[in-house]
Write a structure and sequence with these properties.
This protein has 181 residues and is α+β, with helices and mostly antiparallel strands. The chain has 4 helices and 7 strands.
Length: 181
């Protein structure tokens, strides 16, 4: 399953809260000492999303158990779960419950956000040249009305960029200077 942010085509003012998604997943309650084995043996069943933990504290506050979050396509009936996961659950009598994972703006890449905002998601402008702390973009005419939101997303998603500029004219002199905004 490829997880994508909520689509907000035509957004010209960045609203980070619009990219929050509550994802229902199955949480497997297991003894803390079994976490290492589970993460290696069941790597294909465990939730893997950037910047999100797939092992969380037990909701009951029990220190001897943890909750392992499974991929969204796995249901409580263990549909689409591996045979290894099914056998371990039955063998160890691990309990399962539903858990909601909050996937926010910080979890998405710049490319994900821009594809959700811009009218033509197939050609989202995410490439830029970086010189020091400045990101230099060459936006096409159809994206000029989104230049502010594109710049803000690039600033948010790149820790080394503190300024985003857009070239507005061609290079027409020997010093290779150009107008920018």
């Amino acid at each position: 399953m490829s997880l994508k942010p909520p689509v907000h085509r035509g957004m010209k003012e960045l609203d980070r809260s619009a990219f929050t998604l509550n994802l229902p997943v199955v949480a497997l309650r297991v003894p803390t000492k079994s976490i290492g084995m589970i993460k290696t043996d069941l790597a294909n069943d465990v939730l893997r999303l950037p910047k999100l933990r797939n092992v969380i504290d037990d909701e009951g506050g029990n220190k001897t158990h943890k909750m392992v979050l499974l991929k969204p396509e796995i249901s409580l009936q263990l549909e689409q779960a591996s045979e290894r996961l099914q056998s371990l659950i039955h063998e160890h009598k691990w309990s399962m419950q539903m858990h909601s994972v909050k996937v926010g703006y910080d979890s998405w890449t710049a490319d994900d956000i821009l594809r959700a905002i811009l009218p033509d998601s197939s050609q989202a402008p995410t490439s830029y040249e970086q010189v020091g702390h400045i990101a230099h973009m060459n936006l096409r005419d159809e994206y000029l009305e989104y230049k502010s939101v594109i710049g803000q997303v690039i600033l948010d998603k790149s820790s080394t960029v503190t300024m985003v500029v857009n070239k507005v004219d061609t290079i027409d002199n020997t010093f290779r200077n150009f107008k920018m905004e």
